[in-house]
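Hi everyone,

Forwarding the result from last night's run.
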Amino acid sequence: MDILFIILNVAALLLFVGVLIIMQKKHISFSKRVFTALGLGIVLGLALNFIYGVTSEVLNESIEWYNLIGSGYVKLLQMIVMPLVFISILGAFTKLKIGKNFGKMAAIILSILIGTTAIAAVVGIGSAAIFDLNSDQIVQGDAESARAEYIEGRSAEVADKTLPQQLLDLLPANPFLDFTGARSTSTIAVVIFAAFLGFAYLAVARKDVEVAATIKTGIDAIYALIMSVVKIVLRLTPYGILAIMARTVATSDFAAIYNLGKFVLASYVALAVMFAIHLLIITLSGLNPFTYVKKAAEPLLFAFTSRSSAGTLPININTQTNKLGVSEGIANFSGSFGLSIGQNGCAGIYPAMLAFMIAPSQGINPLDPLFILTVVAIVAISSFGVAGVGGGATFAAILVLSALNLPVALAGLLVSVEPLIDMGRTAVNVSGSMTAGVATAKITGELDKDMYNAPLETQTVEA
C-alpha cells in the first residue's frame, strides 16, 4: 500500500511538471512559469504535509524521488559555479572591461558587502530587542540537543582560527583543489586565481600581441561554451523550483514554527528591513528601486526556495548582465565575492540576533553600547569566508559566538525552524551581492542605463 501512495505522490509531481511543459510549449513567459512553479510547489507541499505528516515514511520516500528533480537541479547549478566564476572573470580581462579600474571596482564591491553586513548586524540586534528575544524562551528537545552536539564539534574546527589565519585561507594555495569547492573559501580563491591569470594576460598583451590574441581566442571560445551550458541549465529553473518548494513545504514542521513564531517573525522583520536598505542604496545610486525589484525577482525567488547562494550564482550573474545592465567584470566579482564575503542574512543578521539572545544567560547586558559595537565589528570581520551553501549561517554563528566567548551550542536551539528562516536569509544574501554589483557599476560608469530601464518583457535569462 505504501508503494502505491508513493507512486501517486510522484505522479502528482509529474502532473505539475507536465503543466509547466505545456506552458513552455505555448511560449508563456519564463517569469510566469517560475511563479507558477512556486505556487504549484506550495500547493503540492501543503497537500503532502497535511495528508501524511512530516514523520511519515511514505512522505520521506516520496521526497527522495522529488529530490531527483529538485536537488538534481541544484547540483547542476553547483556544477557550473566554479567554471562560470573562473572563465567569466578571466574573460572580463581579455575584453578589457576591468583595466585600471580593477582596484577601485573591487574596493567598492567589498566596501558595500562588508558595510551592509555591519548594518545587518545592527538591524538583527534591533529586531531581537524589539521582540524581546531570549534563549531561555526556547524549549530544548532531542533535535536541538543533537544540533548542539554537532555545533560544538564543528566549533572545535573553526573557532580557534585567528583573523590572519582566516585571511590566509582566502588564498589559493592549490587552485585545482579549490575548483572542487573543497573549502568554504574556495570560491574566493578561484576568483583570486582567475584575477592573477587576468593580470598575467594583460602583461602578455603589452609585450606580444600575437600570443595575447591566441590566448584571447581560447578564452573566448571556452567562455562561449560555459555560457551555453549555463543557459541550458537555467531553462530547467521552473521544474527545479517546483520540486524544491514542494519538498520544503511538505517537510516543514508547522507546530515547531508556531512555537518559535516569535523568533521567525523577528527574523523576517530584520530581513525585510535589510532588503529595504538594499533598495535605499539602489535609490541613492540614482536608479529606480522598483525596477530592481522586478528584475531581481527570479534570482531572489530561486535563492529563497533553494537556500543556496552558490546555486543561485549563475542566475544572479545572468540577471545582472542581461537585465540590470551591469558589466560582466563587476557582475562576476560582486556575485562571486558575495558567496563568501558579506552575506547580510547568514553572516550579519543571524549571528547578531543569536548573540543578543544568548548574552543575558551569561550575565551580559545585550543593549550595552560596547557590547553592540563589539558584535558589529566581529560580525563584519568574520563575514570573510562564510560559505554560500547550506551551513553557512551556522559557520558564521560559531565564529561570532566564539569570539564573544558565548556558548556556541546554544546556536542549535533553532534547528526546527532553521530551513524556514534560511530561505529568507539566502534571498537577502543574494540581494546584497546584486546590490553591490548594481551600485558599483553605477559609481564606476559601467552600468548600461538603457538596459536597466528597459521593460522586463523584452528581457529573458533564457537563450
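The chain has one domain: 1-458.

Cheers,
N.
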